[in-house]
Design goal:
Layout: H1 26-52, H2 55-80, H3 86-89, H4 92-106, H5 117-123, H6 132-138, H7 141-146, H8 156-164
Helix pairs in contact: 1-2
């Protein structure tokens, strides 16, 4: 949205500038995928193995989980780091998700399932447009897209130290 850059200071304090290298996104991507894999291990993979003891099912679920995690992280990154995924930005389904996620950043109680809007519909958390007051305060989706902020790379300096060593 509009306004100064605000980032979680994971590796450095007072992060107010956006990163400028694609390679420094590795730790962020790894942490996202890892958290999704851990959650899936506890809720799907582990229980499936305990119930069936079926190796083919286990391997299939693990492969499917890896693919799904990669898709989720890639779409998330395409929304937050638009310069890295220009072809995806042009897809109709992506434009809907991008607007859906933009609304979530303004009203964080709405559109919480940004990759599965049907879940927002089912749980009553879907919001398809901003109110006039919200547009006045935060701007429109099109205005935000005209003023891209680039992409955030919180692990930038950590990876540079590792690579330079």
């Amino acid at each position: 949205t509009n306004g100064p850059v605000k980032r979680h200071p994971i590796f450095e304090k007072d992060v107010t500038k956006l990163g400028n290298t694609e390679s420094s996104n590795f730790l962020t991507r790894l942490s996202h995928s890892g958290s999704y894999m851990l959650l899936t291990c506890m809720t799907i993979i582990g229980p499936s193995w305990l119930v069936t003891h079926n190796n083919i099912l286990l391997i299939s679920i693990i492969i499917a989980t890896i693919i799904i995690c990669d898709v989720v992280v890639t779409v998330h990154d395409a929304i937050h780091y638009p310069s890295q995924y220009p072809r995806m930005q042009k897809q109709k389904w992506f434009q809907f998700l991008d607007n859906h996620h933009f609304i979530h950043h303004i009203d964080t109680e709405k559109n919480v399932n940004f990759l599965l809007p049907i879940c927002d519909f089912l749980f009553g958390t879907i919001k398809l447009s901003l109110s006039v007051d919200e547009k006045r305060v935060y701007g429109t989706f099109n205005l935000a897209k005209q003023n891209p902020m680039g992409y955030s790379e919180p692990a930038k300096y950590v990876l540079q130290k590792i690579i330079d060593i």
